[in-house]
Amino acid sequence: MTSPRPALALSALLAVAGVTHFAYPKPYDRIVPTALPGSARTWTYVSGVAELAVAAAVAAPRTRKLGGLAAAALFTAVFPANIKMALDARGRSRGEQLATVARLPLQVPLVIWALRVSRSAA
């Protein structure tokens, strides 16, 4: 039997991220790609809802397989926002620039984690 810990940890990460979209939306608003139609705040809230929904799907054993796939898709879909954040950091402190660039490759292990959770689901 596979431990549910990786799935529950992924679910918790997604839930915390989703809640922060509502509690502290301004940082998320700033990284919404300008090519998207509508207001940045709307996209911030939509992505927060998506993270909360995916967190719930990953947490529930019945929907974990689909939830893991949805998490992988979500981590891939938000990658352009991470690129925008790195580009927008130009002109800021060296530490902030490095942090935003260093974050880019971290998306890969998140996608792998989500896919593993999906594959290990019963």
Fill in the keyword field for this structure.
122 residues; 0% strand; single chain; mainly alpha
Q: How many structurally independent domains?
A: 1
Ends distance: 9 Å
State the major sheet: none
Shape type? globular
Number of strands: 0
Query: What fraction, in percent, of the residue positions are helical?
Result: over 70%
What value does the Rg take, in angstroms? 15 Å
What is the H-and-E element order? HHHHHHH
Number of helices: 7
Q: What would you call the quaternary organization?
A: single chain
Classify the secondary structure makeup into a structural class. Answer: mainly alpha
Contiguous runs where pLDDT drops below 50 for at least 5 residues: none
What proportion of the residues form beta strands (DSSP E)?
under 5%
What number is the mean pLDDT?
Answer: 94
Pfam family, one: MauE
Main location: membrane
InterPro entries: Methylamine_util_MauE
Membrane topology: Multi-pass membrane protein
Ordered list of secondary-structure elements with their pairings:
Layout: H1 5-23, H2 25-31, H3 40-59, H4 64-77, H5 79-88, H6 94-103, H7 107-120
Task: Explain how this protein is built.
- The chain is mainly alpha-helical and 122 residues long.
- The chain has one domain (5-120).
- It has helices at residues 5-23, 25-31, 40-59, 64-77, 79-88, 94-103, 107-120.
- Helix 1 packs antiparallel against helix 3 (40-59) and helix 5 runs antiparallel to helix 6.
- The mean pLDDT is 94.
